[in-house]
Amino acid sequence: MNEIVQQIFQGIVEGQQDIVAAGVDAALEAGVPARTILDEGMLAAMAEVGRQFEEGECYVPEMMVSARAMKTGLAKLKPSLKQTNVQTAGTVAVGTVKGDLHDMGKNLVGMMLEGAGFTVKDLGVDVSPEAFVAAADDVDVIGLSALLTTTMGQMKTTLDALDAAGKRPKVKVIIGGAPVTEDFARHIGADGYAADASRAVALAKSLISLSD
Ligand code: B12
User: Fold this and answer.
1) Ligand 1 atom nearest to CA at 125
2) What was the pLDDT predicted at 135?
3) Which one, of 7, 10, 13, lies nearest residue 46 by Cα?
4) Digit-coded pLDDT (tens) for 120-167
5) What CA–CA distance (Å, rounded) separates 108 from 118?
């Protein structure tokens, strides 16, 4: 791994915002591609934090400082991830479902969609089914994010609410988040699932072109 990328990785695992911010600046300046910084430095570091939490090597406070360091790095990286400015491909509302406060995956998906030319409405975290229903009229696609097995059920509740409000025919619903699978998406009747932000972009594009 590139030395600066290694520093970013370590900075996120140890929750050192300043090191991460300086590392991202230095890596970009040295010509390291934004995708390498994201994949090998930042996402790999969050996966390591998740592993440590699971194995009892770190606890929620450590996870929070790592998350803060990751957010600082993502903010620095955002302009480079969005560089491809093309014309609007459609409008997507993204949100993390009710009861769930994890927002980095959702933010990243939003950023990459924007980079690909979509207009993105960020509904935030802990979003109620009613709020997703209210957003449905103005968008082509709704992206639901869930990181907890206990909140995945909210995805089905949200789909049911959209259905009950008569919005399902006009809006495509895509889902994602660490515990979510393709099978689960099919089971609850979502229009698609993507494992990461790049695939989310490809999925949103394909669903919009299908509905043209
Ligand atoms: C950081 C973190 C936190 C931070 C969140 C900060 C924030 N602002 O987001 C804090 C400390 C607040 C937190 C709290 C909790 N957390 Co937490 N957290 C994590 C951690 C380490 C990383 C998550 C992350 O940001 N990853 C990086 C992002 C970029 O990846 P991602 O979210 O997976 O997103 C990618 C894809 O999934 C996909 N994607 C995501 N969303 C969407 C949406 C769409 C539409 C699409 C198409 C794709 C897509 O694309 C993204 C980009 O590639 C994970 C571990 C892990 N392996 O996931 C645990 C983890 C999710 N947390 C866990 C737990 C248990 C909790 C708590 C319950 C802990 C507690 N006892 O309080 C609380 C719950 C709070 C709540 N109500 O939400 C567990 C969940 C276990 C389970 N099976 O349910 C995990 C898996 C840790 C573990 N290994 O045990 N957490």
Assistant:
1) 78
2) 97
3) 13
4) 999 999 999 999 999 999 999 999 999 999 999 999 999 999 999 999
5) 13
Give the residue whose CA is nearest to atom 56 of ligand 1.
Answer: 50
Give strand pairing partners of 9. none
The edge-to-edge listing of strands for the beta sheet with 119-127 is 119-127, 91-97, 141-145, 172-176, 192-193
Please, what's the largest Cα pairwise distance for the chain?
53
Atom of ligand 1 at shortest range from CA of 112: 52
**Single-letter amino acid, residue 65:** V
Q: What distance in Å separates the CA atoms of residue 165 and residue 129, rounded to the nearest whole number?
A: 11
Give the distance (Å) from ligand 1 centre to CA of residue 46.
Answer: 9
Using CA atoms, how far apart are residues 111 and 34, in angstroms rounded to an integer?
13
Dump the DSSP string for 79-125.
HHHTTT------EEEEEEETT----HHHHHHHHHHHHTT-EEEEEEE
